[in-house]
Design a protein that fits this description.
Length: 376
Amino acid sequence: MGNNETTGSADLQKSTSSGLQIIALNRGAYREYFMTSVPEGDECSQSLFQRMADAVRARKAHVISQEVFGMPDKNGAGIEMLKNTFGRIDAPVTWLEDGHAANLCGAHLRAISGAEVKRLKLDGRVVGSVFEDDYAQYCQLGGLLPEREHISPAEQAEEIFEKMDAVLETAGMKFSHVLRTWFYNNNILDWYGDFNKIRDAFFHKKRIYEGLVPASTGVGGCNSAGTALVSGLLAVKAKNKAMQSCEVRSPLQSSATDYGSSFSRAVELDLPDHQRLYISGTASINPNGITAHIDDPEAQVTLTMKVVHAILESRGMTWSNVTRGLAYFKHAADAPLFGKYRINNNIPLFPVIIAENCICRDDLLFEIEVDAIRIG
């Protein structure tokens, strides 16, 4: 795979049209795009996908990954619609069917132009995209599913970690290069403890605790394949010392590893021309690791947003630096609280999908994850 010239300064451009937000990161020879599409009124899924497909074609870009939330994919009908709209599916797709109420759905898409993209396959499906610049090699995996849905959820999780490792190896990478993971576990409350044990054991085997523990999201989520989970990750392998990555601690929360969850609150990727911040799924948890504001969704939203803002602020960022966001509500009826908080606290519009998903604790009602970029 050839190099892509990225020397010089970078800049961000933002555009918002009907139901579509696009953030373009311009870096030398190529541009990276972060697209978020949400429905307007009772709009059908196909038109939502169509405007994203049109935007990709107009920019002559290659899709790196796509995530779909809250839309049915019965018997593969959703994936077929996506294929028909884009012409083909040659990038990883993570599809979650949860949350059909109150039109809580949408899609994120990451794309790039001016760069060569290599595809990674597993079990006959594209599950990864790889590209590089002067500083690093980047790998995005998505839509990873266990082969055997009849085995226990814990065994399926174990299989997923092994698949992640195997696919990364085909790209010349290791799990130690992973900065960010996503796990959508069906019936998560029934087996989240077992999942954590599997992850801990895998991390010990791969000696992850001796280096950077990835940022992560672990929430409920069902998929049309009927497996116990679907997952994805972002890995970055440095080509020289110009690229650095580090854990970012939360000013208002303790480390998640203190109460048995193996993830960093946030991870930062530092490049000469910009910095990227990946904030893990964050919820209403106090510094002692205990759920705060039980049975009070508005207070949980308030605390959670303050925690995320504090992490952003600690890295010289604000909500205006966010390029991608996912806000998960346990109950669809509480979803308007997000917009209310944003308006009351003068937070500008940023790319976010609001979805209905079960959180990893029964008493947690809200969770949010964001990615952000700062130039300089």
